[in-house]
Design a protein that fits this description.
4 iron, 4 sulfur cluster binding; TIM Barrel; 374 residues; 9-stranded mixed beta sheet; binds FE2/S2 (inorganic) cluster; alpha/beta; 15 helices; binds iron/sulfur cluster; iron ion binding
Length: 374
Amino acid sequence: MSRSRFLPFSLLCELTFHCPLQCPYCSNSTHYSGWIKNELSTEQWIRVLREAQKLGILQVYFSGGEPLVRKDITTLIRTAHDLGFYSNMSTGGTLIHKELLKEIKEAGLDSIQLSIQDSRPDLADQISGVKKSFEKKIEAARLILECEIPLGINVVIHRHNIDRIAEIIDFAASLGAHRLELANTQYYGWALLNRKKLLPSKQQIEKASQEASKAKEKYKGKMEILFVIPDYYSPFPKPCMQGWGKIYMTVSADGTVLPCQSARDIRSLSFPNIRSDSLENIWWNSEAFNKFRGTDFLPEPCKSCPRKEIDFGGCRCQAFLLTSDAAATDPACIYSPHHHIIERIIQEENPAETPSEDKKFIYRNLKNSKTLQA
Ligand code: SF4
Ligand code: FES
């Protein structure tokens, strides 16, 4: 293995499993209730950041759960800043207040990504599972800009908001976002549980894609717009994580180190923990990071496919969740022998009409996580 092909660039620090919101498309593992009492201390996170710098990582993303739940968030941001990282924080925004933002800005945070569920208050609160969360997010956006922190907005797209994508884009622009990510739901974690109630139709995706292209022109030079096509509807899979163990690593709130934030759901792999190993050793020598590194592990048809250096056979998590084999060709690919699974899902789970009871989601909360584990 040539080491220069696998240099870590970006570290995702999932600081906590706690979150005041309950979005049914959360990509966190549904099993988090079993790990929530075992979160890393401030000192352990500082050690993670120091080791990440030694490893050559340049960017640090703080997320959760909700990173602002942590009382030491300012300390961790300051540590990242002092170590020379570019740092970003992904937040639901409902815990933001002016004093906290000032501290965060002063500690050296480079940008914030604020999640918004919808452009309409009632629908946004229905998805977040928390009343008045919409109002708090709007105020958070205002305060972020007032503190002169670059603002990115993330909206997860699904069956219930995709038809209003133009309205959502205009809404994000009215909030002053510098960047808007329209992220079609990826079906891992809680989103997989709720897939039947979230998956849009192909026609909805096509229309939304056209609207997003028009909006890119309209907001050119003012707001960058990213529209990510869901791979259930594209012929080839996404180059997930830009390749397993290639540039990204995630440290979960309990210290588990992952090549991808959803990888814990690959039950056939065990993952190392920062409590008992160094980041450097985990990156270069752990089984978890080496298992699907590069393309040598790929079966046919990927083995002899010219696209394998573009998409690396797709997503390992999706391959495992849909076929029970994490090394398999991602079923999203039209050449995959398992592609019929995706076709069946689209046919069975995506009625042309959206019945109203379709909004009875399984929300991401501790009670549901415990029930699912029992
Ligand atoms: Fe990608 Fe494999 Fe499909 Fe080729 S066969 S496009 S490498 S997933
Ligand atoms: Fe884990 Fe794609 S989401 S590898």
